Amino acid sequence: MESVQEKIIIVENLTKQFGDFTAVKGISFHVNKGEIFGFLGANGAGKTTAMKMLIGISNPTDGTANVAGFDVHTQSEEVKRNIGYMSQKFSMYDDLTVQENITFFGGIYGLSRKQIKTKTEELIAELQLGNITKTKVGDLPLGWKQKLAFSVALLHEPKIVFLDEPTGGVDPITRRQFWELIYAESNKGTTIFVTTHYMDEAEYCNRVSIMVDGVIEALDTPKKLKEQFQVNSMNEVFLKLARNIE
């Protein structure tokens, strides 16, 4: 008998319109607690628009979403307090040092000075940042920026962390190292919701959804999706799905 897993994100008929254009077209899905959930699709498929609704910074046009036990329509501030968020486009302040960024975001997340001090020491030790805490983030390699941004998104120990294209623009080795950080955090029980257009990264997820033109066209484990489409890789799943829709 299959065990009943706790659902930490529940989405029903979620829709977002911009004038006459519907970017997200009535999507429904759930994410289990502690799961690494891949939200995949080509650029422009609607992934980021959907994520913005889930993290409480964009109001849905229609439908419902419950994130970490809170309604995104009526409890968006509670949603924000219980999640971490990392964007590819905006991660850290380049003109502040590593130390200053950690302190700043710790304050934003409502941590006390004592908590910030403790968390800073833990983060510096974990990422081996000892020699660069006074370095401006803008002077760090992109891979270091991404690792630091991920760790800072977890400072307040959120139930869920949303990662929007977290490995965009970094080399394959750095991408793999970043996924090791994701696995480590998932093993602690944190739910990871990650958007990416790198189809090979889907293999690292417990389950994946694939969005095409604002609609979720497939959702299952990578293994079952490959079996369903009779292919050997998630990239082939995506290509076959796109051809079927055309």
TrEMBL record:
It is a multi-pass membrane protein. Keywords: ATP-binding, Membrane, Nucleotide-binding, Transmembrane, Transmembrane helix, Transport. SUPFAM superfamilies: P-loop containing nucleoside triphosphate hydrolases. This is ABC-2 type transport system ATP-binding protein. Its main location: membrane. It comes from the Bacteria. GO terms for cellular component: membrane. Residues 9-238 form the ABC transporter domain. One of its GO terms (molecular function) is ATP hydrolysis activity. It is found in: Membrane. The keyword Phosphoprotein does not apply. Signal peptide: none annotated. InterPro entries: AAA+_ATPase, ABC_transporter-like_ATP-bd, P-loop_NTPase. Pfam families: ABC_tran (PF00005). Transmembrane segments: none annotated.
